[in-house]
Amino acid sequence: MTSNQQDTPRILIADDNSAIHEDIRSLLKGVPESKVSSSLERQLFGDDLTQTTHSQPTYQIDDAYQGEEAIQQVVNAQKEGNPYAMIFMDVRMPPGMDGIQTIKEIWKQNPEVEVVICTAFSDYNWEDIQRELGDADNLLFLKKPFDLTEIKQMALTLTKKWKLAVSNKEHTANLESLVLQRTRELRKVVKRLEFLKAKAEASTEAKARFLSTMSHEIRTPLNGIMGMAELLLETTLDSSQQDMAKTIINSSESLIGIINDVLDYSKIEAGKIELEDLRFNLFKSVEDAVELLAFSAQNKGIGIASLIKEGVPEFIKADPERLRQIILNLLSNAVKFTEHGEVTVIVRCETVEFDEQKKSLSITVEDTGIGINESYLKTLFTPFSQSEASTSRRYGGTGLGLSISKELAVLMGGDLGVTSSEGRGTSFTLQLPLKVENTELVNDSDIKEKLANACVLVVNSSPINRLVLEEYLQPCKKIDFYHFDLNNEDAIANTKPSLPHYDILMIDNDRGRQSALNLKVELLKQRLGISSQFDVALVSILESVHHDEFVSLGYVTTIKTPVKRRRLHNALISLLDYDGETQLPQDAVVTEEDNAVSFLAGKKLNVLVAEDNLVNQKILSAILSKLDMNVVCVEDGREAVDMLGQRSFDVVFMDCHMPNMDGFEATRYIRSELKEDVPIIAITADAFNENRQRCLDSGMNAFISKPFKREHVINILLQLFE
After folding, report:
1. 622: three-class secondary structure by DSSP
2. Residues 345 and 303 grouped into a single domain
3. Of 298, 423, 582, 602, whose CB is crowded by the most CB atoms within 10 A?
4. Same-domain status, 499 and 485
5. Tens of pLDDT along 371-395?
6. 403 Cβ partners below 8 Å, 6+ apart?
7. What is the C-alpha to C-alpha distance for residues 675 and 679, in angstroms, rounded to an integer?
8. What are the tens digits of pLDDT across the range 159-200?
9. What sign does the dihedral 150-152-157-159 (CA atoms) show?
């Protein structure tokens, strides 16, 4: 329908009375009152015979005298594209169908048309009409005789209403068309994005597979390099040879660190990082990480320590490997970028802001290193970023470590922040939600009770060790720090000749020759009036004088630095109970590794090693043989199956990738055909969790990753046989 057609509404008068047609037509066309029938004149215009309706709207008016005729005209109007806006419909139009039936048929053709029912009397009352036609909003009921003003107003109002309805329908249709068009365009965009997403995922997956394959190929020979260097260190070597072997191991560990960083970054990029939620010893994780970096730190002449504040639970729930990874990354950076001073790890338990019922774990790694320029802090956690190009050239590194650590912190529900001042040091703080069961909180009451009456004197404590000892010796009744300058004769001469009684005497030793240490002890005894032995020597892991030599100098025992909280407390308690007759072992306790070696060696295990790489065979055989185990080696999965068919073994180390029959197929055969439940440990160079899960799904009991160390082999065996 055109705009002109809509501006001139079309009206149909359907009535069998021609006079009605003439009167309504004349009125709606604006005919002067004198030409309208007298009955209509009097009703509409009264006595003013000169009035005309110059402002009357124009209509296109058609006539129908029977129901069938009205229907046909409505059909024709629809075909012409010029539908009726309004119909005046008489109820009784003999012969044929009446007005009500006609309206029902008309609405089938034109549902929007406005209908006015005109009748003087009818077989239908209003209730009947509603029942027949429903509650339509385009239906009015007008009884004869008409009020002509009402007819004019009705025509005007209903045609305007119809125009609005038509306009709204057209607008809605246009909107729907536009929506359909936009939807089609959007579908094309979505389809394109899905294609690009699939392409990107395929590219990321291919990159991850490539990196995994390269990692596998590098780890296997690297395992041989590191393993042989460790075995070499267990032989008789001079100091120069030992230094070379240690350099090989340190360089290999740096390489594996780079490989792990690249793999972790690719996992994060692909969204394949999976976190565990395990109960583990937080104290041990933090202190072991510090101990790993102690050699590098002390070799540079910088102090390193861990300080676990009061109130921190010893056991928590989190991902221990990822937490250890973050701490090691921050520590290695701190040691790398610090030339003078110290590196400290401080662990606190803090109340969460706005919720005093919740606690968070705060681990801060502080250093006194080169610091970071403020302009570089914003990009510090960006992948492949370092503070400046010269930093990368001087210190090396991939620039991935901090980015990975930040991502891991967020994945664990926390965050990693940094503050720094150029030339004055840097502080990284890891915040994690603290998850710990009340039953797992460590009770220190026994330790506090045993140390409650102890008086401790610490001589010549370094600043970093003093910080740690002040915290860890809090349960003691009294703790004093005394400085004794061996190189200052005046200080020695003026030293206080006697001190109050102390239960434990502790000297924080400087590295040096045995003669110097001996002189220091004698002078201290003379000037302080001490006749008995010094109880404890705090010695660094680089100390050239060994534990037995310290005992020969007059010490009861030694404690290595960095000081561990439990190690210190155990040593002090052992000293308080010391009878003075038997020699206490180093650290006052037998090491966990010593216990593990003794336990495993006592089992006399028969071990089958299935490994096609001869170097890895040699390394694993050497490690197991030193644990007093009987080792048999084969080169593929088929030989492993045949060997298990001939004799029994206590444990099998199974390489995953071997010729003829790989480790997965061999394990499935052992479980299904041989019905053997012997523990099988996978040897894998694959770093992705799905590959490790594949080991477990095939029937293996555990896995060990290349490159592996003696401690890894011991730990995995302990898990299976303890």
Report:
1. helix
2. yes
3. 298
4. yes
5. 988 878 887 887 655 554 445 444 4
6. 265, 381, 382, 383, 384, 385
7. 12
8. 888 888 888 888 888 898 999 999 999 999 999 998 888 888
9. positive
